[in-house]
Amino acid sequence: MFVALSHFQAAVLFAFFTSIVMGVIGRETDQERLRYGAYVFGCFMAAIVGISWLMYIGHG
Question: Is the dihedral of CA 8, 11, 16, 17 positive or negative?
Answer without folding.
Answer: positive
